[in-house]
């Protein structure tokens, strides 16, 4: 019995010492600032923060969990917008609000986590560094914690900073794909031959061999496009602004062959393990391309391809694969909208 009394006294003393140290030496709430820069203009960046549907796609707090369920409430962007979330796997839930907005300059968030009635307050400021670069500054104020929970304040800032680092990496990929798509759409001049330098790409897709009969070939493309797109968006959970336009790579002059082999893939930012053996990654090296944008029947693309090949021969350039980038989703019995790129070299 005496032994248990001694243990109880020791526990009380230690508990008291812990409570006293937390009370006198650890703040009940914490305030800190984090700064980051990103190589995109402020209007592009701000729209990813003030639209909560965009925000939850790249913010690691929400994106890192596969079991989280999010409800969005109108208005979906700007002051007054809000979400609620439940994550049964991690046993957490909460609500998030945008309380103030000064377009392209400032946002104020409130985040209520679990049953805590006091919110985490986050002011985010956006400062243009240049036409193509933005500084983002987070001013964070955590809610007051009871004496027993104040130990959490020792790692709050590190945890928040780690979340921002991971979030910024994803945001950079999202904006990169979005800006690339916007630029491509703005640069379209149909049936005009241009010269472009293309950067390296990493594609996740599928290798295919099929008949070159008119209807069979295009139907096969549509089927495999849907297969790759569904795998990336449904199985991998990627959103449209997280990847580039789908690309089909094939021999430039195989339109004359009875059988056609091609690779159809979607550009992604990094390689990872793929559990479905039907899909694989393919790296595409930087190239110089002769380019034409084409809109019409899929069979009609042959004339544009021939123009690219004739141009290469006239310039005494050797040529390799042709890439067909689908600006719009290919669908049966509908015209295609695509970019044709013939890689050329001396």
TrEMBL record:
Q: Which InterPro entries match?
A: ASHA1/2-like_C, START-like_dom_sf
List the top taxonomic levels of the source.
Bacteria, Pseudomonadati, Bacteroidota, Flavobacteriia, Flavobacteriales
Give the similarity note. Belongs to the AHA1 family.
One Pfam annotation reads AHSA1
Instruction: Spell out the protein name for this chain.
Output: Activator of Hsp90 ATPase homolog 1-like protein
Organism, scientific name? Chryseobacterium polytrichastri
**Gene3D superfamilies named among the record's database cross-references:** 3.30.530.20
The Activator of Hsp90 ATPase homologue 1/2-like C-terminal domain is annotated at 39-175
Q: Which domain of life is it from?
A: Bacteria
